[in-house]
Write a structure and sequence with these properties.
The protein is α+β, with helices and mostly antiparallel strands and about 725 residues long. The chain starts with 10 loop residues before the first helix and ends in a 10-residue tail after the last helix. Helix 1 packs antiparallel against helix 2, helix 12 packs antiparallel against helix 13 and helix 16 packs across helix 17. It is elongated. It folds into five domains: about 60 residues, Helix Hairpins (Orthogonal Bundle); about 230 residues, D-amino Acid Aminotransferase, Chain A, domain 1 (2-Layer Sandwich), CATH 3.30.470; about 100 residues, Nucleic acid-binding proteins (OB fold (Dihydrolipoamide Acetyltransferase, E2P)); about 70 residues, 5' to 3' exonuclease, C-terminal subdomain (DNA polymerase, domain 1), CATH 1.10.150.20; about 100 residues, BRCT domain (Rossmann fold, 3-Layer(aba) Sandwich). Strands 12, 13, 14, 16, 17, 19 and 20 form a seven-stranded antiparallel β-sheet that branches. The protein has a five-stranded mixed β-sheet with strand order 2-11-10-3-9. The structure holds 2-(butylsulfanyl)adenosine.
């Protein structure tokens, strides 16, 4: 034998090696493609070791499709780029069956000779992995390219050779050349095991199966890829030479399967759009129990002749469309449940999740809403859960997957104490929220201040949540109103605050003090159930914080969108001692929209309460409030007074009377107290009259009231 020449193998060794390759191919396919092994792992390993031994002894026997090559080993410096022989297109999306039907109508317009009844669709799950092209010359795997930009991909041949369900040699009717296209992915089960291994070895955890698959495919050391549980599922072809012609996508897919590839489970033919709808609905149901992650389905026109007629746009084929799930979902581990204390003291449970990519966004936390929700979904710490994101909505935990429990999961017990202040918590009857009862809870103050300065509140430029937290940490605030009392020295003492930024903060404060509108201020107070829209409606209706704070539930219920629950919440807010103090502090700081209107002629702080205009024409011009409230109200003797109605009125309903009183500038109260200026008495007044007399409250009959509000006196009833 000459130097360098490979040792010739005896005939029986060559025959045995060929036999071993065929056996390993067959059993590999039974195991990895068909999921139906015929021999044990140990028997497979014995065949594999025998082949490896022969190849070591006679290197000449090493063939390019030997299963021993699947262990990898080549190390690249970078992944070379290579052009695709035919572009790898993307897909257009539809997000509902309705949009899908519209897509079909559009196709039919492009195919005037085709009747809808003759259209059939090859349906496949849309796998959430990485697009890949595998190239076979005369049946032997020679190259793998990622999709790349669709025209040029990265060559990842060595890595794809390690993928156990990728045939290294094709079976069936083998063409001269075939480019098989499909998706590389990692199943959910394999992904969980991979991450568990990563965790054990102190490696980096993957955010989701897709990332793990993409990272594995692009490894420079193919032995690393070989240890990753990658799978390839075929969905079509690129260039094909030397094969028979098929007439449908279904036939093409069956041929691909016979070549030795795995195709997606549930792939099938639908003979009409109605059948497609059924197929889609059953996929939606099966979505979470699928062995791998899906992001929808792909519908392809079954007839290849029609596919050819329809062709491609610059981006995507016209003959195929992706039906996407409206809300992307992914699995994550529920690592822990923490509690967030809101500005109303409500303790909101929040799921801390293993980072997971849900529709392109990495999610680490998701709201669990309340205690009942955790119970109803039987969520346990340590569970694998489904996380969903619909549009811009906050991610939520859809359900736990109890079948994946291993017994270490723990039931979450809602604490009896606030996690921030240690104070007692309480759940009111009929309410879902558990609340911290400590009004001085630092979390409640922190969230109130953050809300107060936020966009939904006074929207003070430059005053974000971070600054609020700094101020609270420095113990400079004990109420949101305190920010208006801050001195420059206070702000300069904070980290990262220089003269210039303090000047800007100060300017923003002064601007807010002067220009804040009533709806903004109401919204900034953070009254439960009162958002920006309701705040506008309340400002429009009451015209001043004095009138709003004096309004009873009945009067509040007359406001658009305000029902008994919201009205009660507003009432409770204004009755709370701490909130009254807050209002007085704001008034004292000149943050009092209607007071400003008077400051043209009088210093606002000295103005007696009854003199405050219920509505400022200034703010009206800003367009936030209803026309109805005009400065005219100042003419009424009821202006700035408090009033209450009792007994049956004859000319007016109670709500009409309240509206008139408010229009005249009075605040309508819900009970008799020393704060009450007038009790208007109708027929059969009850205990209210007695109480009012005892307190020396002024009593009016209906006629006197009507005169005071300048309304025409009702004619005597016949
Ligand atoms: S067919 C000509 N079928 O979706 C377009 N694509 O959003 C060929 N995908 O890049 C695509 N499952 O990687 C097709 N059953 C399936 C698929 C599928 C997943 C991927 C594919 C493509 C992406 C487009």
């Amino acid at each position: 034998m000459k130097d360098g020449e490979a040792k010739a193998a005896p005939e029986d060794a060559a025959a045995r090696a060929a036999r071993l390759i065929a056996l390993l191919e067959h059993h590999g396919r039974r195991y990895h493609v068909l999921d139906d092994p015929e021999i044990s792992d140990a028997e497979y390993d014995a065949l594999f070791m025998e082949l490896l031994g022969l190849e070591e002894q006679y290197p000449v026997l090493r063939s390019p499709h030997s299963p021993t090559l699947r262990v990898g080993g080549e190390i690249l410096e970078s992944l070379p780029s290579r052009a695709h022989s035919l572009p790898m297109y993307s897909l257009d999306n539809v997000f509902s069956l309705g949009e899908g039907r519209e897509y079909v109508r559009k196709l039919l317009r492009l195919l005037p000779d085709v009747d809808e009844s003759s259209l059939s669709f090859w349906m496949e799950p849309k796998m959430d992995g990485l697009a890949m092209e595998l190239i076979y010359e005369r049946g032997i795997f020679v190259r793998a390219l990622t999709r790349g930009d669709g025209l040029t991909g990265e060559e990842v041949t060595g890595n794809m050779r390690t993928v156990r369900n990728v045939p290294l040699r094709l079976s069936g009717s083998v063409p001269d050349l075939v480019e098989v296209r499909g998706e590389v992915l990692i199943s959910r089960k394999d992904f969980a095991a991979l991450n568990a291994r990563q965790e054990q070895s102190g490696g980096k955890l993957f955010a989701n199966p897709r990332n793990a698959a993409a990272g594995s495919v692009r490894q420079l050391d193919s032995s690393v890829a070989a240890r990753r549980p990658l799978r390839f599922l075929a969905y079509g072809t690129g260039r094909v030479e030397g094969a028979k012609a098929w007439s449908t996508q279904q036939e093409l897919m069956f041929w691909i399967r016979d070549l030795g590839f795995e195709i997606a489970p549930k792939a099938g033919l639908c003979l009409s759009f109605a059948a497609l709808e059924q197929w889609w609905n059953s996929l939606v149901t099966a979505r979470d129990s699928f062995p791998f992650e899906l992001d929808g389905a792909v519908a392809k026109i079954n007839s290849l002749a029609l596919q050819e007629k329809l062709g491609f746009t610059s981006r995507a084929p016209r003959f195929a469309v992706a039906f996407k799930f409206a809300a992307p979902r992914a699995r994550a581990k529920l690592l822990d449940i923490s509690l967030q204390v809101g500005r109303t003291g409500a303790l909101t449970p929040v799921a801390n999740l293993s980072p997971v990519n849900v529709g392109g966004v990495v999610v680490r936390r998701a709201t669990l809403h309340n205690e009942d929700e955790i119970r109803a979904k039987d969520l346990r710490i340590g569970d694998t859960v489904l996380v969903q994101r619909a549009g811009d909505v906050i991610p939520e935990v859809v359900a736990a997957l109890p079948e994946l429990r291993d017994g270490t999961e723990k039931v979450f017990i809602f604490p009896a104490h606030c996690p921030e202040c240690g104070g007692g918590v309480f759940r009111e009857k009929g309410e879902s929220a558990v609340r911290c009862l400590n009004r001085a809870c630092p979390a409640v103050l922190r969230e109130s201040v953050k809300h107060f300065v936020s966009k939904a509140g006074l929207d003070i430029q430059g005053w974000g949540g971070k600054l609020a937290e700094q101020l609270l940490r420095a113990k400079l605030l004990s109420s949101p109103a305190d920010i208006f009392a801050l001195k420059d020295e206070d702000l300069l003492g904070l980290e990262r605050q220089g003269e210039k930024s303090v000047a800007n903060l100060r300017a923003a404060l002064e601007d807010t003090r002067r220009n804040c509108t009533l709806p903004r201020l109401i919204s900034a107070l953070g009254i439960r159930h009162v958002g920006e829209e309701t705040a506008k409606a309340l400002a429009g209706e009451f015209g001043s914080l004095d009138a709003l704070s004096a309004a009873d539930v009945e009067a509040l219920c007359r406001v658009r969108d305000v029902g008994p629950e919201v009205a009660a919440s507003i009432r409770d807010f204004f009755l709370a001692e701490g909130n009254r103090r807050l209002l007085e502090d704001l008034r004292g700081q000149g943050v009092w929209p209607e007071a400003r209107a008077m400051s043209v002629s009088e210093p606002e702080r000295e103005m007696p309460r009854q003199m405050l205009l219920p509505f400022s024409p200034d703010t009206e011009k800003k367009g936030d409030m209803a026309e109805e409230k005009s400065g005219k109200a100042g003419a009424s003797p009821l202006y700035g007074k408090t009033i209450l109605f009792t007994g049956a009125l004859s000319a007016l309903s109670r709500s009409e009377a309240s509206r008139l009183a408010e229009k005249a500038g009075a605040g309508v109260l819900s009970g008799v107290s020393a704060r009450l200026d007038y009790l208007v008495v109708g027929d059969s007044p009850g205990s209210k009259l007695r109480k009012a007399e005892a307190l020396g409250v002024g009593v009016l009959n209906e006629e006197e009231f009507l005169r005071m509000v300048n309304a025409p006196v009702a004619p005597e009833k016949a």
